[in-house]
C-alpha cells in the first residue's frame, strides 16, 4: 500500500508540473502549494525529480514546435552559406533567441540561490501570482503588429529579461515572457512561439547543469510514471493554451492568479 501511495503521489506531482508548466500560472509555485496544502512533496534537494520533469516538458515543447525548429535550422544554415535574403528572417529569429537567452542564463548562474532564499515561503508566491494576474490583465486585449520579420535585438533583450524575472518563485516563465512580448507589440502567435522556443535553451541549460546531481536509486518506477504524466500533460496543456492565446482568452488566467494569490495571502 505504501508503494502505491508513493506512485500515486508522484503521478499527481508529474501531472501538476506538466499541466502548469506551459500555462501562465507558475508550475514551481503550484508544486510548493501542493506541498503546503496537501503535504505532497519531494526532497528539498531532489534534483533528479526536477531534471526529469523539466526534460519531460522540454520534449513536449520540442514535439509541438518541431516544424518551426526544422525550418529555422534549415533556413538559418542556408542563410549562413548562401547569404540569400529570403532566409534572413529565420536566421535573425535564431539570433534573437540566443540573445534572449542570455539574461536568464547569466542572472540564473549568479543569483538563483539568492533569489530563491529571498523569496522563500508561501506568501511571496501568493504575491507573485497576483503580480502575474495583473500583468496578464493589462495585456489581455492586445493583438500586436510585430511578426517574425519585425523583431529587433531590443525586443529580444526585453523578453529575455522578463524570462529572468521568472526566476522569482511564483512568477510564471511563460506568463512573464508572453506579457513582455505582447507588451512591446508582438502578435499573439509570434509572442507565443518566441516564448516557447526561448524556453528550449534555458531548459537544456538547467538539465546540463543539474544532471550530475541526479540519483534515481530505488525511485525509478515513481519517477518514470511522473515523467510520463508530465510529458503528456505538458503536451496537451500547451496545445490548449495555444488555442486560448489564438482566441485572446488570457483574462481567465488573470482571474485564476487573482483568486489563488489572494487565497494564499489571506490564509498565511
UniProtKB/TrEMBL annotation:
GO terms for biological process: cell wall organization; peptidoglycan biosynthetic process; regulation of cell shape; response to antibiotic. InterPro entries: UppP. Keywords: Antibiotic resistance, Cell membrane, Cell shape, Cell wall biogenesis/degradation, Hydrolase, Membrane, Peptidoglycan synthesis, Transmembrane, Transmembrane helix. The chain crosses the membrane at residues 47-65, 86-111, 117-139, 191-209, 221-238, 250-267. Its EC number is 3.6.1.27. Its main location: membrane. It is found in: Cell membrane. Belongs to the UppP family. Bacitracin is thought to be involved in the inhibition of peptidoglycan synthesis by sequestering undecaprenyl diphosphate, thereby reducing the pool of lipid carrier available. HAMAP family: Undec_diphosphatase. This is Undecaprenyl-diphosphatase. It comes from Bacillus mesophilus. The lineage of its organism: Bacteria, Bacillati, Bacillota, Bacilli, Bacillales.
Amino acid at each position: 500500500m505504501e508503494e502505491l501511495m508513493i506512485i500515486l503521489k508522484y503521478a499527481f506531482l508529474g501531472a501538476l508540473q506538466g499541466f502548469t508548466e506551459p500555462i501562465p500560472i507558475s508550475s514551481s509555485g503550484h508544486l510548493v502549494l501542493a506541498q503546503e496544502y496537501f503535504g505532497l512533496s519531494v526532497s528539498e534537494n531532489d534534483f533528479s525529480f526536477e531534471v526529469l520533469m523539466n526534460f519531460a516538458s522540454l520534449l513536449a515543447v520540442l514535439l509541438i514546435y518541431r516544424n518551426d525548429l526544422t525550418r529555422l535550422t534549415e533556413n538559418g544554415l542556408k542563410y549562413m552559406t548562401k547569404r540569400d535574403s529570403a532566409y534572413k528572417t529565420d536566421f535573425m529569429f535564431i539570433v534573437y533567441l540566443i540573445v534572449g537567452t542570455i539574461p536568464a542564463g547569466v542572472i540564473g548562474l549568479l543569483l538563483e540561490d539568492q533569489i530563491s532564499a529571498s523569496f522563500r515561503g508561501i506568501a511571496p508566491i501568493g504575491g507573485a501570482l497576483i503580480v502575474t494576474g495583473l500583468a496578464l490583465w493589462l495585456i489581455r486585449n492586445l493583438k500586436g503588429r510585430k511578426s517574425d520579420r519585425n523583431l529587433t535585438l531590443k525586443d529580444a533583450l526585453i523578453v529575455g529579461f522578463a524570462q529572468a524575472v521568472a526566476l522569482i518563485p511564483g512568477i510564471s516563465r511563460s506568463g512573464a515572457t508572453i506579457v513582455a512580448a505582447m507588451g512591446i507589440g508582438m502578435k499573439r502567435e509570434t509572442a507565443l512561439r518566441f516564448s516557447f522556443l526561448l524556453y528550449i535553451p534555458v531548459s537544456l541549460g538547467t538539465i546540463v547543469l543539474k544532471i550530475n546531481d541526479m540519483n534515481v536509486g530505488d525511485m525509478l518506477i515513481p519517477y518514470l510514471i511522473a515523467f510520463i504524466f508530465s510529458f503528456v500533460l505538458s503536451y496537451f496543456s500547451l496545445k490548449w493554451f495555444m488555442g486560448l492565446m489564438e482566441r485572446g482568452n488570457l483574462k481567465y488566467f488573470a482571474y485564476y492568479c487573482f483568486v489563488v494569490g489572494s487565497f494564499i495571502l489571506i490564509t498565511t
